[in-house]
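Protein modeling request. Please complete all fields; requests missing the sequence field cannot be processed.
Requester role: graduate student
Desired output: 3D structure, token encoding
Chains: 1
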Amino acid sequence: SIAILLYLAQKFKTPDHWYPAELQKRALVDEYLSWQHTTIRVKAGTMLRHKMLLPIITGKPVPEEKMQSLTEELNVVLNQFEEKFLQDKPFIAGTEISLADLLALEDILQPIIVGNDLFEGRPKLAAWRRRVEGAVGQQLCQEAHEVLLNPSSI
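Delivered output (154 residues):
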């Protein structure tokens, strides 16, 4: 949860870039954290549930029109993310990675498990992903996302 991440960042005095002390940068992180749970998280999670879980529960595939509608809704919030939060910055809060970038990446990766690569055709988003993964460490990101990106490996 966001509350737990903020608590841990402050309790263990993590490097400042994760949750900046400088108020303007912190406001950018807080703004994204307040926005994401009703936008990217909801839309990406809904797509995952409809494509993967509902067919298991109901025994029927979700109609293609519904999946198209969910994809369009997710594209709207991805456009907002690129235009409002990324703009022309390397990361959400500026030049360094923050908790906002970590949460954004995790939410945006969810639809990949059901075959929707949200980075395809979005060079700004794809470049941001590479920067986030580079800042965290490629090996660590691969290990953390192994099941998500390769569900057949379970």
